[in-house]
Amino acid sequence: MKPREMRPQVYWVGAIDWDRRLFDALIPLPDGTSYNSYLIEGSEKVALIDTVDPTMEQVLVNHLDHLEVKNLDYVVANHAEQDHSGTLPRVLEKYPQAKVVCTAKCKGMLMDLLLIPDARFMTVDDKETISLGDRTLEFIHAPWVHWPETMLTYLREDKILFPCDFFGSHLATTDMYVTDGGQVYEAAKRYYAEIMMPFRATIQKNLEKIKDYAIDIIAPSHGPMYDKPEFILKAYHSWAFDEPGNIVVLPYISMHDSTRKMVEYLVGALAKRGVTVKQFDLTVTDIGKLAMSLVDAATIVIGTPTVLAGAHPNVIYAAFLANALRPNLKFASIIGSYGWGGKAVEQLAGMIPNLKVELLEPVLSKGVPKETDFRALDNLADTIAQKHKEQGFA
Ligand code: FEO
After folding, report:
1. Which atom of ligand 1 is nearest to the CA of 150?
2. Full-prediction pTM beyond 0.85?
């Protein structure tokens, strides 16, 4: 792949990583990803916006050589995470005059993470600008998209916003701009769930902060660019601001089929009452899909057998993740089975303090579920459907 011209003297110079399957040793990447870097050749100065993952540094260097970039004045680091900053040392070595432009917090992180010396930095305040001659870069501080040091860069004359992780999607594609809206919507929602959802209140503020900018292109650092920015702005607005839907997410584990029978019964009972259910068997599920389902769900019901007096370890992991992702859930419950006792309910309920939920009466069966357990599940389904209706979710 060669550099791609977006506007006169404005180029995509990134790398597409078709084969990466895991990010941060945690997040599944079913469709690979890209590390988008952008070059702006102003009439007087040249700037690079973000770099690429260190595994792909030669790709970026080849792009710069292909475009015969002899001098680089600025390397804008919107974000200190390695997938965008990891090639900074190589770029700074290649261009000894180049300054790293970033927030003060980002400077500290880059010094810690990459040992870049103090003299190579130029920190910028919120709304500060740098002139490239015929082009102007404006820096918009936007913390927590994805770390506390993040900022966005706005190229005024071309009305291009470079938001780094914000609005991104883990998607390897040769499409410069969104062509398959359904595919990008799903990848961007997954990305929002995994990366942005824990900071929803700050995301709301950042969306407000950019709402008066005229934007023709949003050029994130993962996935395709948006030449119709309202596509992703509208989606983000909905994910960050909307009330949840009439949806229950049901992650579960079953060892000897008792919990599975309860899960299947509850799913049917909820569906009968008009509630949408997303069911995840945690032995096989993709946790990104589970995260994505939490974006617009009103209720989580966790299904677990009792193991060594507590919940199954895979269920503990899912509860930990749900708590860390801080979705906008309103209700929670726990169902499952036990052999002779245990504290699975107390344990799980104590693990989700970040979820500001009302805990609905759990349903636990001793051994295989019996008629009384199924009636209790009917009652739980009634309660959930009723609560959703009262809150205006149904
Ligand atoms: Fe794409 Fe937070 O790095």
Report:
1. 2
2. yes
